[in-house]
Amino acid sequence: MLFHEESFSCHVAFMGDGKSKPRVENQLRRVSARVHDAIDLPPEAKAGGILVSLVHTEGSCYQKAGAQLFISQAKQVFGLVSGGCLEQAILDEGLSLQSEEHAPARLKCYETGEPGEIDFGYGLGCGGTLWVFFEMIRDRVRLDELLLRPREEMWEAWVVESEQSSWLGRRRNHRSQLQALDAPEQALAAALEQLRFERESERRTQARRSALLSITIGDKPFKIAVNRKPAQVFLAIFGAGPGAWPLAEMGRLLGWQVIVYDHRPSYVEDFPKALAPVELLPRDAAFPWPQVLERDAETGIRAAIVMTHNFSRDGELLQKLLRGKWSYLGVMGSQQRWQTLRRDFALSESPALHAPAGLRLGGDDIQAIALSIIAEIQAHVQPSSGLSLSSKLSRVELPQAKVSVPRIPADRVEESP
């Protein structure tokens, strides 16, 4: 396996037989399991940190390509790139890079292997392989650029191995403007073109989320990682009652932008402001609804849930919301209530409409209801079938977005082993 190193067997933190190995004390402090929380760090804490990106996986892996982890200068850790089994080895590698003053970025391969493979890889029993890219963040603004989710889904390619260390970490997405291209830019464009060709020609029954390609431009070899970056999700919750609280909290944990609206001042006042911003909706019919409907209009994924528990108010809201562009529009309540709403307010049909909102997960408290709604939104906007991972039903083929990139010829493009 390319990039496999003999020394990896020395980093095993937990073996498949349940015996633990001594770990190096590195005084790291995990602050958050969400890498995006690192955006809130003061600017001076971002420069000199290490960004760790899971660029490609094969086989069974807990995390998929796109997962990230950040180690600040103060040894604070944000995010997770494995289920925890490889995390110590990955953190050790990140600290090693951070201790070197002018260390170039680097790509590492980790093999979890089978439980009995103690002398080869990590013997964790997952049977997967992970390619992880380590790079130092020297510009305090650069971290925000790399962590912020795009307005719309996009494919991004970056150089993870090349002859010149200054080219490592160079990035390009399929919306980048065509301009004079040097060798690494040509390699990045060729990698994006390869993925575009696969998706448009349907060479694969289900388009992959990532790729690791070896590309040669002239006499210069490159290893290019290509990842799908999902769009930011904007969730509007209409109704600030206690049932909205776990909805807002779960949406925030998923990294969504959440905003809550209500027409009742007491509900707005009582809503926990730490969960999400909340705004008062006046009862005045002259209220500028287009501002609400078009908020973050450029966001690729917009979801809304109506749950004021006031029949008339829900009907009025739905009449207005159905004029907007939503990826998901859910209505809380029973099937009978929804049928009455639709009849009394002459509500139109919409492919985004889910009424009643939620999946059949069981449970009847507000947390279980919130989970069923969040799960339905997640499955709808990704998109995904929403089936159990252990389901014996055949995998549902889902539509894939098409991308267009400049056609840049490469001397050679091939899969990395």
Overview features:
417 residues, Rossmann fold, 3 domains, six-stranded mixed β-sheet, six-stranded parallel β-sheet, 10 helices, elongated
Please give a structural write-up.
- There is one protein chain.
- With 417 residues, this protein is α/β, with parallel strands linked by helices.
- It has helices spanning 43-46, 87-99, 142-147, 183-201, 244-253, 265-270, 289-293, 311-321, 335-344, 366-381; strands at 29-32, 49-59, 68-71, 76-79, 106-111, 128-137, 154-162, 171-173, 210-217, 220-229, 233-238, 257-262, 278-280, 301-306, 328-331, 353-354, 412-415.
- The protein has 3 domains: 1-148, no CATH class; 150-230 and 398-417, no CATH class; 233-381, Rossmann fold (3-Layer(aba) Sandwich).
- Helix content is 24%, strand content 24%.
- A 6-stranded mixed sheet has the order 1-4-3-2-6-5.
| Biggest sheet architecture | 6 strands, mixed
Average pLDDT confidence is 76
The count of domains is 3
Q: What is the H/E order?
A: EHEEEHEEHEEHEEEHEHEHEHEHEHE
Q: Note the beta-strand portion.
A: 15-25%
Superfamily at the CATH H level of the largest domain? NAD(P)-binding Rossmann-like Domain
Per CATH, the class of the largest domain reads Alpha Beta
Strand order of the largest sheet: 1-4-3-2-6-5
State the separation between the terminal residues, measured CA to CA. 6 Å
- General shape: elongated
Global structural class: alpha/beta
CATH level-3 fold name of the largest domain: Rossmann fold
Number of helices, counting only DSSP H or I runs of 4 residues or more? 10
Which radius of gyration do the C-alpha atoms yield? Answer: 24 Å
Q: What is the count of β-strands?
A: 17
Q: Give unreliable regions as ranges.
A: 1-25, 115-123, 394-409
